[in-house]
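User: Structure please.
Assistant: Input sequence and predicted structure:
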Amino acid sequence: MPLVVLTGGPCVGKSAVAAQLGGALEADGWRVVVVSDDSLRLPRHSLYASAGAEKQGRSAVIAAVERALSATTVVIVDAMNYIKGFRYQLWCTTKGGLGPSCVVHVAGSLAAAEAANAGRRGTGREYPAASIPAIWRRLEAPSEADRWELPLFTGTAGLILGIRQGTAGLILGIRQGTAGLILGIRQGTAGLILGIRQGTAGLILGIRQGTASPRPSSPCWPRAANS
């Protein structure tokens, strides 16, 4: 039951990353479910208007994730992941880290987000202008100090979407279980982003034939008996 949690400020490109990663995984034969504001029809004009509206929205996201998780489905969460405590709740849906999961932080700037939101006017996908800086102030960036946010990968949407051959490759299947190859840039290109090997998404999260390879350096994973 692989779980990929996308986080970052609003309008930084998370949905584009979710769409490309999901498409690459589906091309490799995975069943993919993207849980997002749009898929749940959460109203952006009022979603962050009150604490009560946010609570209802988060409850809807958790319920959708719990319904979608299975041994053969990759669930990509692209909704309301700004708060650290909520990401912990999502991690708990994988039975406290016993299932494979990771956090992908899409970096960006407030100014770029506001410009992107302004460009969405009239599309039904824009946030109220005042919501962008308000959400940005509340954004709690993920940290490798928190075990429920490991493995953690960070990069801008521009680099993540610059994957060679248009595939997400082995995102999360980082060689040797480290994030050291994130965006694996060589000679100024993002060709090896996130440790792509052989251009396939077949080993996302190190999964082979329905089992998950442990991430040795992460407290999320129990060490093998012979380690």
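Helices lie at 14-27, 51-68, 84-92, 110-118, 131-138, 157-160.
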